[in-house]
Structures are given as structure tokens and as C-alpha cells.
């Protein structure tokens, strides 16, 4: 009995390392995704310019430490510590694991018995080529000299487990559940479960539960993401345990040949009122992008432009205007220069004369260092300038 007989939509093969891999659609028979990439989410329509202007400037905090490790069992552990310019130091620990195909065996004792005592298996139960996870693939049995079968007392598991157990294990493995547990110094414990491309092709579901160690449950959040070649939509439902309030936010983007149109709306379930709405237009090309967004109930208008000048230079600009206050137009200009494959430098300045510079380098494999500074060019002789550092270790 082969694995394909249990899962018609799955084709499995043995790699050189003896492990299995799935070569086509999942067990649900999903077709391969289209080569055309889906449009970005509503919050990411202006992402190229926003990332260039806002990310990798390290002056916001005095020091940031981050350690990323991965255990032999596949659990990714991330520890962060932040020392602000004012206030107390904070930190968090996150553990994340993805249960992918072939990464778990529900009936571990059965798999171990087959791997440990291969000579005690019956010929009709002999799926050769075991993977490290215990998922076994059936091949044509080779001719073996006839040997006397061992008594049942020498193979205690053989009589009660069949190849069906491995198929059930494979079913659970194909779920692709990602679990994340996070704890921080604010006594907040958060647990998240994710299902990506399992319920439907292009659909991702996330469920988050929060718990305060000194106060008990605080609430939870359900997030749904659905992406297809021409549209990208998201839905978020946030529940507060203390007040019982339920807030919902839905956004969507439609794209065609680089042109993007998107909208967002928030809804208060208890009050039955719309809490916010926004809209955006954009265009994205391989080397440049432009976006026009109207946020905060269409009261704040932002226009941004990003361009990759060449392989080493990137530039971006963003202008914003508040229709309610009718103040000055906010302007930010930023640039990034790639010094070498392991280092880059960034600089930006805004309409208030605040200039920021940053430098990032990968010192060696497993250690990345960043440093940045913020200067008030109109008050160089006064206090208020900031400097910050970032240390990232990976192992």
C-alpha cells in the first residue's frame, strides 16, 4: 500500500538523504499558485518608501539587543532587549515552531519500532526508505533469503500497528501549523497559532490569545489574510476581555499591471458604528513605486515615491498634510547606499531640520552591528541629539 493511495493529491519521493518531500499540491488537491504575484496589503502600498525612511535608523533607542537561535528540534527562539533613552529597560522571549510535512510522528513508538527492528517487519508492511520523521514510502521489496519469522514476543508492536498509522501521521503533518509563544517583561504572555495555505490556497489564518500574569486574560485577536494574483484582502477581529468590546477592521487591495487601488474600514460591533476609513492609490514597478494615501477618515493625505537608482543607491521621499489642522506640509527625504555586500549606510532629513544617519554591517556570520544618530540641525549647540546602537546575534 503506497502513500499515494491515502493521498491522491500528493506525490512523494525519496531524496538522497532518505527524507520525503512533496512535489505538487497538498493533500487537499490545491493547484500551484499562479506565477503572478498578488498585490501588497493595504498597509504596504507605500512600503518601499516607508521602509527606506523609517527602518534601520537606530537612534530611537539607546541600545537594542537581539539574539536568534534555533534548537535541533526546529524551534526558533528570539530574545530581545531594549534600553530606551528614557525609562526602564524592557525585554521579550519568543519561541516559534512550524509543524511541516514529515516533521512529527503521532505514533512515535510505532515509527521507532519499524526503524529499530526493520528485520521484524512483515513483507506487506515493509515501506522502505524511512524519513527522519518516521514517514515511510513504499518501494518494491528486494528479494531476500527466506528466514524464519520471529515470534510475536520478539516484535511486540508488529501485530497492532499497520501502515495506516503512518498515513494518519502524514495527515497531521500536512496541516502546517505554526505556533508562537511570547513573554515579555510587562508580564504579558501571548500565544499565536497560524495556518498558512492549508484551509484554502492563498488563505492564512492567525489566532492570538493574550494573558497578563498579574491580571489574567486580556483578550484575543483573529486575523485572516487572503491573497490571489489580482487582489489581497485582510480581516482583523480584536476582542477585549476587560470591556467586552469587539473591534473589526477589513481592508483590501486590487492590482492590475502595477496599478493598485485599496481601501480600509473599521467597525465597532458593540456600538454598530464605523470607527475609521481610509483609501489609497499606488503604482509599483521593479525599480520604482509611488503611492497616494488618505488616512484617519481621509483627514491625513500622504504622497510617497521610491526609486532604486542603481544596484547600490536607493532614494525615497514622503510628503504629508493634515486637512484638519491645515498646518505645514511635512516632508521627509531619505537615501540608502550599499557600501559592499555586507554593509550599508543611510541618511534622511525632514522639514523640521532633523537629520538622521545610520550605518549597518555584518561583522561576521552570526553578528550584525548597527549604529545611528539623530541631530537637530537648527539647534546644534543644544542638547537633544540622540545616538543608538543595535546588536544582533544569530546562531
UniProtKB/TrEMBL annotation:
Comp. bias (Polar residues): 17-27, 79-95
Pfam families tied to this protein: Porin_3 (PF01459)
Zinc is among the record's keywords: no
A GO-annotated cellular component: mitochondrial outer membrane
Comp. bias (Low complexity): 139-152
Keywords, alphabetical: Ion transport, Membrane, Porin, Transmembrane, Transmembrane beta strand, Transport
GO MF term set: porin activity; voltage-gated monoatomic anion channel activity
InterPro entries: Porin_dom_sf (IPR023614), Porin_Euk (IPR001925), Porin_Euk/Tom40 (IPR027246)
Region feature (Disordered): 1-36, 75-95, 117-157
Family: Belongs to the eukaryotic mitochondrial porin family.
Entry protein name: Mitochondrial porin-like protein
Amino acid at each position: 500500500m503506497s502513500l499515494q493511495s491515502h493521498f491522491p493529491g500528493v506525490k512523494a519521493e525519496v531524496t538522497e538523504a532518505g527524507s520525503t518531500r512533496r512535489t505538487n499540491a497538498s493533500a487537499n488537491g490545491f493547484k500551484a499558485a499562479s506565477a503572478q504575484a498578488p498585490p501588497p496589503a493595504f498597509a504596504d502600498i507605500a512600503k518601499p518608501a516607508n521602509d527606506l525612511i523609517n527602518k534601520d535608523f537606530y537612534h530611537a533607542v539607546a541600545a537594542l539587543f537581539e539574539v536568534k537561535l534555533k534548537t535541533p528540534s526546529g524551534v526558533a527562539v528570539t530574545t530581545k532587549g531594549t534600553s530606551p533613552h528614557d525609562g526602564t529597560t524592557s525585554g521579550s522571549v519568543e519561541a516559534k515552531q512550524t509543524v511541516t510535512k514529515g516533521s512529527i510522528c503521532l505514533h512515535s513508538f510505532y515509527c521507532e519500532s519499524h526503524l529499530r527492528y526493520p528485520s521484524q517487519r512483515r513483507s506487506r508492511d515493509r515501506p522502505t526508505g524511512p524519513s527522519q520523521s518516521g514517514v515511510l514510502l513504499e518501494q518494491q521489496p528486494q528479494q531476500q533469503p527466506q528466514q524464519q519469522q520471529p515470534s510475536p514476543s520478539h516484535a511486540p508492536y508488529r501485530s497492532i500497528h499497520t501502515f495506516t498509522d503512518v498515513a494518519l501521521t502524514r495527515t497531521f503533518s500536512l496541516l502546517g501549523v505554526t505556533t508562537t509563544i511570547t513573554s515579555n517583561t510587562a508580564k504579558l504572555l501571548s500565544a499565536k497559532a497560524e495556518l498558512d495555505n492549508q484551509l484554502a490556497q492563498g488563505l492564512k489564518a492567525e489566532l492570538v490569545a493574550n494573558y497578563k500574569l498579574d491580571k489574567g486574560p486580556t483578550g484575543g485577536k483573529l486575523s485572516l489574510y487572503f491573497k490571489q494574483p489580482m487582489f489581497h484582502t485582510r480581516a482583523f477581529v480584536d476582542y477585549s476581555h476587560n470591556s467586552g468590546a469587539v473591534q473589526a477592521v477589513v481592508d483590501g487591495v486590487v492590482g492590475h499591471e502595477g496599478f493598485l487601488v485599496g481601501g480600509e474600514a473599521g467597525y465597532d460591533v458593540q456600538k454598530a458604528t464605523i470607527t475609521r476609513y481610509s483609501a489609497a492609490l499606488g503604482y509599483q514597478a521593479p525599480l520604482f513605486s509611488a503611492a497616494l494615501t488618505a488616512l484617519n477618515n481621509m483627514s491625513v493625505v500622504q504622497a510617497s515615491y521610491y526609486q532604486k537608482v542603481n544596484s547600490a543607491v536607493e532614494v525615497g521621499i514622503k510628503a504629508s498634510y493634515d486637512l484638519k489642522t491645515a498646518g505645514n506640509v511635512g516632508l521627509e527625504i531619505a537615501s540608502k547606499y550599499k557600501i559592499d555586500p555586507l554593509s550599508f549606510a543611510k541618511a534622511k532629513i525632514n522639514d523640521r531640520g532633523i537629520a538622521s544617519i545610520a550605518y549597518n554591517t555584518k561583522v561576521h556570520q552570526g553578528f550584525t552591528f548597527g549604529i545611528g544618530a539623530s541631530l537637530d540641525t537648527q539647534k546644534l549647540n543644544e542638547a537633544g541629539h540622540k545616538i543608538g546602537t543595535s546588536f544582533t546575534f544569530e546562531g
